[in-house]
C-alpha cells in the first residue's frame, strides 16, 4: 500500500512510463490481434488501459479527464497512446492536488468491498500491470516488439551485454 501521496506518484510514474512505451510501439494493424475467438482484441485491451481505470479512481473520489468507458477503441494506435499519455498525466495531477497522506487512509466502497484509498491506488496499479501483461502477449502474437518491464525482453538481452537465455 502507499503511505504517502508522493510514494504513489513515484510508483505510478514508473509503471505508466512502461505502459506508455508499449502503447507507443503499437501499430494500427496490431490493434486487431485477438486473444482468441470471441475474446477482446489487443486494441480493446490497450483502450481499456486508457478509460476503465477512471472508474476505480473515480469511485475513490478523484476527478480527472479520461475518455468514456463506453467509447469505442480508436482504429489508430497513436490515438490510444496519446489518450493514455493525457489520462496518466491527469491521474498524477489529480492525486497530487486532490489527495493528502491522511486522506489515503479514508475508506471507500469498491466493488462490494471496503478499501482505503491507499488500497485503491495500489490495486489500480496492479490492475494496469495485469492488463499490460495481456498486452505484451498480444503484441508478440501480432509481431510487435515488446520491452521488458522488470528485466530485459528477449530482444533486449544484447543491449545489456548478455546472451539470450536458452529455452
UniProtKB/TrEMBL annotation:
Family under the similarity heading: Belongs to the DinB family.
Could you list this entry's UniProt keywords, alphabetically sorted: Metal-binding
Is the keyword Metal-binding assigned to this protein?
A: yes
Q: Under what name is this protein listed?
A: Damage-inducible protein DinB
Concerning Pfam families, the annotation shows: DinB
Its source organism is Paenibacillus germinis
Amino acid at each position: 500500500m502507499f503511505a504517502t501521496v508522493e510514494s504513489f506518484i513515484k510508483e505510478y510514474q514508473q509503471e505508466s512510463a512502461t505502459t506508455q512505451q508499449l502503447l507507443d510501439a503499437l501499430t494500427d494493424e496490431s490493434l486487431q490481434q485477438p486473444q482468441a475467438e470471441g475474446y477482446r482484441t489487443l486494441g480493446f485491451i490497450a483502450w481499456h488501459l486508457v478509460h476503465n481505470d477512471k472508474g476505480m479512481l473515480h469511485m475513490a473520489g478523484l476527478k480527472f479527464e479520461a475518455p468514456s468507458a463506453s467509447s469505442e477503441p480508436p482504429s489508430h494506435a497513436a490515438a490510444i497512446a496519446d489518450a493514455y499519455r493525457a489520462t496518466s498525466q491527469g491521474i498524477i495531477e489529480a492525486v497530487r492536488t486532490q489527495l493528502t497522506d491522511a486522506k489515503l487512509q479514508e475508506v471507500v466502497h469498491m466493488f462490494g468491498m471496503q478499501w482505503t484509498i491507499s488500497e485503491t491506488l495500489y490495486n489500480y496499479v496492479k490492475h494496469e500491470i495485469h492488463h499490460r501483461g495481456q498486452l505484451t502477449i498480444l503484441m508478440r502474437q501480432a509481431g510487435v516488439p515488446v520491452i521488458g518491464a522488470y528485466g530485459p525482453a528477449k530482444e533486449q538481452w544484447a543491449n545489456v551485454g548478455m546472451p539470450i537465455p536458452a529455452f
